[in-house]
């Protein structure tokens, strides 16, 4: 009997050891191919590439494309399938890019909408019917975060993992389609993300892969701006490349790494005004997203965020921004609270999450030794989830794409700056920078 028990123990230990060894031997997967997504012009006038985004308090912008020039920019909606009790008319645009001509791109704002409510809607008086959920007006709220998506097998895997989590809004810190001048790839990206982006708001800001300028012929962000219109007008910004919004007690800044950002720039002036207006009683948390990281110990893209950091870090610090989310580097890294290059309990936590799954592959090489502010770093594809539980606590987790499974690899509770006393201490001194003319 004793012998039998002993042999069972050995077997159990062996199984455990095998499991541990398997984890330790985890080999990061290779880049997957760009999805074969042959896009051809549709003969039908039906809506496609449908996506939604917040457009001011209790309003949502519905964006879609169709090939029929006479189709109206009309959205009908209601809380019961097939019963449309309200409707709104919007605007449409289109653009030409060398030999490419886009479909008719519609943007229609609907509302006022109830919070945390499922709505059914259709676009251009045609089917199919889409379903979306509006965000809550109070905590808790959960954000899904993934940058540098592209359209590869890994992108599909990341989107599938995000779809499995319960979240209210997708935040994307730049590099969407990797169209890189091939306009049809904007269309295929729109099709790829439609199932998710038509059901939860996708709030995006631009990366370098959105810039498609041709000297003397084309402005840099024409395709991106035409397709992914964000609520910049609603937030007093003059450019789709930077804006802000409030949701459920969170003020979110969507900044532009590829828009002018020195202290004489329009973006800087707008950011200063925007931060001066933040009311921490109404929005206890402040987040900032932009593409190029300021705190990055990966060898890829070293120093690229320097000029933006020099001008804007003092503003974010003075305003008490809690968390900064960036992309660009195709890996994951989370910092301690930092400011001015070193750990600081009153600075933001910086998270680089540019590992959505694009075709360029992962950035494997890191600077050693690890800087004191770097808490966790790994080159794998994946996505993040930020659940803001209440005015003082948020739970951040990073989910690595381990083969085709989402595996939680990093997690941390983050307490808000408002609860740590940092905001009060900064009030009289640092906030002067936000109030200066
Ligand atoms: Fe990038």
Automatic annotation (TrEMBL):
Residues 1-24 form the signal peptide. Residues 142-332 form the Calcineurin-like phosphoesterase domain. Keywords: Glycoprotein, Hydrolase, Signal. Its EC number is 3.1.3.2. It comes from the Eukaryota. Residues 347-405 form the Purple acid phosphatase C-terminal domain. Residues 47-132 form the Purple acid phosphatase N-terminal domain. One of its GO terms (molecular function) is metal ion binding. Pfam families: Metallophos (PF00149), Metallophos_C (PF14008), Pur_ac_phosph_N (PF16656). It catalyses: a phosphate monoester + H2O = an alcohol + phosphate. Belongs to the metallophosphoesterase superfamily. Purple acid phosphatase family. PANTHER family: ACID PHOSPHATASE RELATED (PTHR22953), PURPLE ACID PHOSPHATASE 18 (PTHR22953:SF155). This is Purple acid phosphatase. It comes from Stephania yunnanensis.
């Amino acid at each position: 009997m004793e012998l039998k028990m002993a042999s069972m123990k050995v077997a159990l230990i062996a199984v455990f050891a095998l499991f541990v060894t398997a984890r330790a031997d985890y080999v990061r997967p290779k880049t997957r191919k760009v999805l074969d997504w042959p896009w051809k012009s549709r003969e039908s006038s039906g809506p496609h590439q449908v996506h939604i985004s917040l457009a001011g308090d209790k309003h949502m912008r519905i964006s879609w494309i169709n090939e029929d020039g006479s189709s109206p920019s009309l959205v009908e909606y209601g809380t019961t399938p097939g019963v449309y009790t309200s409707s709104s008319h919007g605007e449409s645009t289109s653009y030409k890019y060398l030999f490419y001509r886009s479909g008719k791109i519609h943007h229609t704002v609907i509302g006022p909408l109830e919070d945390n409510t499922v709505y059914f809607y259709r676009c251009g008086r045609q089917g199919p019917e889409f379903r979306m959920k509006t965000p809550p007006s109070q905590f808790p709220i959960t954000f899904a975060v993934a940058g540098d998506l592209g359209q590869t097998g890994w992108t599909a895997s990341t989107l599938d993992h995000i779809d499995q989590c319960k979240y209210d809004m997708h935040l994307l810190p730049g590099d969407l389609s990797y169209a890189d001048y091939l306009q049809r790839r904007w269309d295929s990206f729109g099709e790829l993300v439609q199932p998710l982006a038509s059901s939860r708001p996708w709030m995006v800001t631009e990366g370098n892969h959105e810039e498609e300028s041709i000297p003397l012929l084309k402005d840099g962000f024409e395709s991106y701006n035409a397709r992914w219109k964000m609520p910049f007008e609603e937030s007093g910004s003059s450019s789709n490349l930077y804006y802000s919004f409030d949701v459920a007690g969170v003020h979110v800044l969507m900044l532009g790494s590829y828009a002018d950002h020195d202290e004489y720039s329009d973006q800087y002036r707008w950011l200063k005004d925007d931060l001066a207006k933040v009311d921490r009683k109404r929005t206890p948390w402040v987040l900032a997203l932009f593409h190029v990281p300021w705190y990055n110990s990966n060898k890829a893209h070293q120093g690229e965020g320097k000029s933006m950091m020099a001008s804007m870090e003092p503003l974010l610090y003075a305003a008490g921004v809690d968390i900064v989310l960036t992309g660009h580097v195709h890996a994951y890294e989370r910092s301690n609270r930092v400011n001015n290059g070193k750990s600081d309990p009153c600075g933001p936590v910086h998270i680089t999450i540019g590992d959505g799954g694009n075709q360029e592959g992962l950035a494997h090489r890191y600077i050693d030794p690890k800087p004191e502010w770097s808490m966790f770093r790994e080159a794998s594809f994946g996505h993040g989830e930020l659940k803001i539980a209440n005015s003082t606590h948020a739970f951040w987790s990073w989910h690595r794409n381990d083969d085709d499974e989402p595996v939680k690899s990093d997690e941390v509770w983050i307490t808000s700056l408002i609860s740590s006393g940092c905001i009060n201490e900064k009030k009289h001194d640092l906030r002067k920078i936000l109030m200066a003319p």
